[in-house]
Amino acid sequence: MSHRPPSMGVDDSSTPIGAADRCDQYFGIDHRLLGLVALACPAEAGQKRKTNNTDQEEVTMTTPATTKATAKITVAKYEPVNYEEPAAGPVLSRIHVEESFSGDIEADGVVEFLQAVRPDGTASFVGIERVTGTIAGRSGSFLLQDSGTVEGAIVSGDWFVIPGSGTEELTGLRGTGGFRANLGEGADVTLDYYFE
User: Fold this and answer.
1) How far apart are alpha carbons 174 and 170 in whole angstroms?
2) Is the confidence at residue 144, as pLDDT, over 90?
3) Which end of the chain, N or C, is surrounded by fewer C-beta atoms within 10 Å?
4) What is the SS3 assignment for 190?
């Protein structure tokens, strides 16, 4: 069976057909079975679809109120290992880091980074860190997902709390933030957080 589109305004059959039937021929389906096709193809020629704005349900998105936490990171262990060193192109490395937070976040962190180091010394990295301690006196642990860069003597990036990773008094923790440091120095970090 051929499903060629009908000619515009011309009916090849001996029986007149309406606009909806022409749509059936074009799509090869019964428009009554699919609401989307029925919307695209009015049941009668010349029929217009009407939009009643008063019938539309208004959807509003609310942004949770957040609290800003600031802290300083001190690195206790930094263990990079290259796992691919091609003749040309960035070197790939894996970095194990153990560090401590002080400030609004009082905690210990352990993180594994994957990093690509370009020949000019700049780098891009991603990582996941488990942070165990307290935020504003609430204790537990949570995971941060990081991404960042090394440009010149500056390490910087962004992170967010992985949904569902909070434990104990930090259950339901959500948030985003970032970090910045001079190479070889402690990082200044922020986390704008809330609880679900």
Assistant:
1) 9
2) yes
3) N
4) strand
- Beta strands at 173-182 and 105-117: parallel, antiparallel or unpaired: unpaired
CA distances from 172 to 42, 100, 104, 131, 143 (A): 48, 22, 18, 15, 12
Which residues share a beta bridge with 91? 117
pLDDT at 23: 44
Give kind and range of the element (H or E) at residue 162: none
Q: Is the pLDDT of residue 193 over 50?
A: yes
Statement: residue 121 has pLDDT above 90: yes
E strands, the chain, where?
A: 67-84, 91-103, 105-117, 123-135, 138-151, 154-161, 173-182, 187-195
Q: Where are the domains of the chain?
A: 19-50, 67-195
What CATH number does the domain located at 67-195 have? 2.40.350.10
The pLDDT of residue 184 is 78
H or E segment to which residue 36 belongs: helix 35-40
Q: What is the mean pLDDT of the chain?
A: 81
Q: How far is CA 36 from the centre of its chain?
A: 30
Euclidean distance between CA atoms 77 and 95, whole angstroms:
10
The rounded distance, in Å, linking the Cα atoms of 192 and 101 is 15
Q: Is the confidence at residue 59, as pLDDT, over 80?
A: no
Stretch (H or E) spanning 24? helix 19-27
